[in-house]
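Justification of resources, computational component.

The compute hours requested in this renewal are based largely on the per-chain cost of generating structure records like the one below. Each record pairs the submitted sequence with a full C-alpha cell output. That output is archived, and it is also reused by downstream analysis tasks.
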Amino acid sequence: MCDKCFSEQIESFRSKEDFEKFDLELTMKIANEKSIKMGKFVNTAWKDIGYQIYICKICKQQWKLSAPDTSGKGYFLQLK
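The structure output for this chain reads:
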C-alpha cells in the first residue's frame, strides 16, 4: 500500500452511502492519473464471478472489489 492508493481494506461496506462514497473516491483515483495512479485490470472473466481487480500503478498493490448487492455488503480487499 502507498499514499496514492488506499491505506486499508474494507471488510464490508456498512451502507449504500458508504459504498457510494468509496466508489467516488476510487473513480477519482482512476480518473486523475497524473496525481493518483490507480488503474483497473481488464479481464472479462473476473466480471463474471462478482468482483473486479484493481492495481496501484505506484506500489503495485492489487485490490479486489465486490460491490454490494441484494445478497451481500461487498468488500475491498488487498490481494497478497
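The two ends are 11 Å apart (CA to CA). The chain has a mean pLDDT of 82.
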